[in-house]
C-alpha cells in the first residue's frame, strides 16, 4: 500500500497535466462553432426575406445599446451562469443533472421565506441569510434527487426531471398558502422588505448577483482542477469503473456534485427573487434550469468557460426583442441559434476527444 500511494499521486499529476493540454485550443474550437452557428442563422434569416446583418445589429443594439440594456443583459446572464456552472460540474462527474429548473424554483422560495421572516433586520444580515436560505433549499432539493437515485437505483435523469414538476407545484402551493399575498389576484408573495433587496449599480441597473455568479464559477473551476475532490470528479466522469478501482467513493462524489449544483441553482433562484422581482412569483424560474443545460454544454463543461457561454445566451435573449421589433424576425430564431451553437460545440468537443 505504501508504494501504491506515490504511484497514485504521480498518476493524478499526469492525468491533470494531460487534461490541461486537452483544454488547449478549446477556445478556438468553440469560436469556430459559434461562427458556424451564426452563419447558419444568417442563412435562415436570408431565406425568410430579411437582412442578416441588420438582424444581428438589432440584437447587439438591444443587448448593449445603452447602460440600461447592458444591465438587463447581465441580470439575464446571472441565473444561467450559476445554474449552468453547477450542471457543468455534474456533467463533468458523469452525473446527468436535469433538475436545475426545480432547484431554482425551490431556492427562490427558500430565499423569499427567509427574507420575509427577517423583516426588520439590517441588510448586512437579511441579504446573506436570505441567499443562504435559497442555496440551502436548492441543495436539499438536489439532495432529495441524489437520495432517490442512490437509495432506490432510479436513473438521475428521470429523478431530476420529474422533481422539476414537483418543485413547481410545491412553490405554487406555498404561494397559495403561507407565502402568498392575500387578495393579490394571482399567485405571488408580499413585497420583500427593502433591507433584503440586492443593491443595484447606479446607471446600469445591474444587481450584485452577477459578481456573486462570477466568483462562484471561478471557485468551482479551482475546485475542479486543483483539489482532490475535483480530480475524483473528473476521473469519475471519464470512467466510473476506474474511479471505483482507484478507491473513490462514487456515492460521495454523487452527493458532493449534486449538493453543490443544487446550492448554486438555489442561489440563482434567490438572486432572481431578491434582485429582480423582489417578491416570489409563480413561474419566475420557467426556462432557466433547462437553459442551464444548454449553457453547460456550450461551455464544454468547464466552469470558467460557462461564464462567456452564459453571457452569450443572456445577450442573445436580451437583444431578441429588439430584433423582432425593428426587423420583424421572430424571437424563436434565438432558440435556433442556441441549438445550432450547442450542436457545433458538441461536435468540436467530440472531435477534440
Q: What's the SSE blueprint?
A:
Layout lengths: L3 H20 L2 H22 L4 H13 L2 H26 L7 H18 L5 H30 L3 H21 L23 E2 L4 E2 L1 H18 L1 H11 L1 H6 L4 H28 L10 H11 L4 H24 L5 H21 L1
List descriptors.
353 residues, mainly alpha, 14 helices, 2 strands, globular, transmembrane helix, transmembrane, cell membrane, ABC transporter permease
Describe this entry's structure for a reader.
The chain is mostly helical and 353 residues long. It has a domain at 79-311. It has helices at 4-23, 26-47, 52-64, 67-92, 100-117, 123-152, 156-176, 209-226, 228-238, 240-245, 250-277, 288-298, 303-326, 332-352; strands at 200-201, 206-207. Strands 1-2 form a two-stranded antiparallel sheet. The chain is globular, with a radius of gyration of 21 Å. The chain starts with a helix and ends with a helix. It is a multi-pass membrane protein.
- Helices and strands, in order, run as HHHHHHHEEHHHHHHH
> Helical element count?
14
Q: Assign a percent range to the helix content.
A: over 70%
Could you list the spans in which at least 5 consecutive residues all have pLDDT below 50?
Answer: none
Concise synopsis of the structure shown:
It is a multi-pass membrane protein. This protein is mostly helical and 353 residues long.
